[in-house]
Specification:
Layout (H helix, E strand, L loop, with lengths): L7 E3 L4 H11 L3 E4 L5 H6 L7 E4 L9 E4 L3 E5 L4 H5 L2 H6 L1 H8 L4 H6 L2 H5 L12 H6 L28 H7 L3 E6 L2 E6 L19 E7 L5 E8 L10 E10 L2 E10 L6 E2 L1 H7 L6 H12 L12 H20 L5 H5 L3
Parallel strand pairs: 1-3, 2-3
Antiparallel strand pairs: 4-5, 5-8, 6-7, 6-8, 9-10, 10-11, 11-12
Length: 338
Amino acid sequence: MMRLPLFQYHSPRTLQEAARILASEGPRARLLAGGTDLLPNMKRRQQVPEVLIGLRHIDELKKTGPLENNGLSLGACLTISNIVQNPQIKSRFTGLWQAASLIATPHIQNMGTLGGNLCLDTRCNYYDQNYEWRKAINFCLKKDGKICWVATGSSRCLAVSSTDMAPMLLALGARLRLVSSKGEREAPLSAFYRNDGVEYLTRHPDEIVAEVLLDSSEGWRSTYWKLRRRGSFDFPVLSVAAAAKLSGGAVEEIRLVLGSVASCPLEATEAEAFLLGRHLDDAVIQEAAVLASRVAKPLDNTDFDMTWRKKVSREFVISALQELRGDETSNSRRLHET
């Protein structure tokens, strides 16, 4: 049986109190929301914080509310179930609702949070093992070792981003409100990630993700596609998030983001530029999918054959664009169970 290491636990009741504790404890501390990722990692000794700061009793982090120009704010400690059960999100931000509904199991959705999923640790077959297994290979570059076993000549860790919410929220143009003991700031979600398996977040060590801010969805369509072995549980090994604003059938604005193909979600900017001003007919969709799939360069560090995952990325982009066009899509196609 794997046991949690010893730690101190703080349970602040306000965001300001949590920020003060985080600032005072420094690198010894980690924030704990739902714990569905952090606590298993602690059992495997992937992370061993001496202090945990629980956020579950901070009501401010569990609110939803309107913003100017018909936008929407989402508290970082809303559970995934809160998002799935919100009819406003389902009707206005369909892709976000789809992404949330495909996360893990109902039990994990009841515990896991929006902010936790955005900050989800990167994953790798050589990293997501117990301590003894990792010690037997002399650890890896992400934790305690000096070699990335996925690509031994690499100078950086190639662990993969496996968050479902980030690609979709990036496609929706989301922003974050970050709070520290020094104050708060707002930043685009696109600036929150870097393509490095270890230093995958740009969040300052003393900052707390407090809120996700979404602009109006008027005129926009969105969708989310996810590949995983078991449709009822697994992390994505490929995801495609797409959001578009159409005018007279032509693409006026579009964002196309691929997840689980690198250490951060990647925007398919070449495909986006190609689609602007064009109608989503079959030939255009096929060409855009080829351009978008160039972003995907999967490695042999997650489930399925990496060559096949590269090939499937094109098919998933096609499906996502067809759905934006208005084609009906069945749930069985979306899940892509294997």
